[in-house]
Amino acid sequence: MYSNDRGEIRQVFFRAWRNYRAQRPLEGVERVIVDVAQRHPEYHALLEAPDTAAQRDYLAGLGETNPFMHLGLHIAIEEQLAIDQPAGVRQIYRQLLARHADAHTVEHAMMECLAETLWQAERNGQTPDQNAYIDCLRRLAQKS
């Protein structure tokens, strides 16, 4: 799943969903992909149509959400929570969860900070700034 090739990454999503639908055993990140995808029924048809969805561009400037980016951000948040990296992310998540009983809503709020951090890193040609990310999450927890 860790590749710079958009097509390869998307194929991992399609394969995971295909294995799930065929009731084949899921391996590694496939379990996480399917878990996240199950919470997004609006993407099921897309995951079942790799021939048309594999190369499609999603243009934020036109108000389109990239479903693969959306699912990928969920996966990134879940991985961060599993290992508490960056340090403190799990505690902030718990604070947010205490105020908003719905974990999915909390993840969506956290994804805004993560997406902004990734966008800034790409724009500046740098690695993502973990401190800026954690600061964003802390501000989110304070205003919730």
Structure, described:
- The mean pLDDT is 92.
- The chain has helices spanning 6-21, 29-38, 44-47, 50-53, 67-83, 89-99, 103-124, 130-143.
- The chain is globular.
- By secondary structure, it is mainly α.
- α5 (67-83) packs across α7.
- It contains 8 helices and no strands.
Largest sheet: none
The overall pLDDT, averaged over residues, is 92
What sort of overall outline do the alpha carbons produce when their principal axes are compared?
globular
Order of helices and strands: HHHHHHHH
Please compute the radius of gyration using only Cα atoms: 16 Å
Class by SSE composition = mainly alpha
Percent of residues in beta strands = under 5%
Helix content: 55-70%
* Total beta strands: 0
N- to C-terminal distance? 33 Å
Helical segment count: 8
Q: Pick out the low-confidence regions.
A: none
Short description:
This protein is mainly α and 144 residues long. It has helices spanning 6-21, 29-38, 44-47, 50-53, 67-83, 89-99, 103-124, 130-143.
